[in-house]
């Protein structure tokens, strides 16, 4: 398991600054972003368009991810300890138990095979 990273990627920096609308617009315009193993702790990410993002290994500790549709997002090895998750839609490959363990104890989420 890699530790969470603060990245130089400009798209990642938009998320760190909680400029979610600008992130979504630039991504819709085709701009790529590197979010694998990104440190997103404590951020308000509501409104994030997460479709097809690779957020493998992301660290969402105490982040606000309420209402985000992660159904087509790669969240394998991500941790959501103490995150606000109400209304978030997780990939089918993540069981409710896996999500609960990560939210309550900080475990890294594992996809069912």
Structure description:
The structure is a single chain. The chain is mostly helical and 113 residues long. It has a single domain (1-113), classed as 3 Solenoid (Pectate Lyase C-like). Helix content is 23%, strand content 0%. It contains three helices and no strands. It has helices spanning 10-16, 20-28, 96-105. Helix 1 (10-16) runs antiparallel to helix 2. The protein is globular and about 35 Å long. The protein starts with 9 loop residues before the first helix and ends in an 8-residue tail after the last helix.
Describe the secondary-structure layout:
Layout: H1 10-16, H2 20-28, H3 96-105
Brief description of this entry?
With 113 residues, the chain is mostly helical. 23% of the residues lie in helices and 0% in strands.
Task: Give descriptors for this structure.
mainly alpha, Pectate Lyase C-like
Q: How many helices does DSSP assign?
A: 3
Into which percentage range does the β-strand content fall? under 5%
- Termini separation comes to 19 Å
CATH class: Mainly Beta
CA radius of gyration is 13 Å
Low-confidence regions: none
Total domain count: 1
Count all strands and give the number: 0
User: What name does the CATH topology carry?
Assistant: Pectate Lyase C-like
Question: What does the oligomeric state look like here?
Answer: single chain
What is the helix/strand order?
HHH
Structural class: mainly alpha
Strand count, sense and closure of the main sheet? none
Backbone shape: globular
Going by CATH, the architecture would be 3 Solenoid
The overall pLDDT, averaged over residues, is 96
The portion of residues assigned to helices is 10-25%
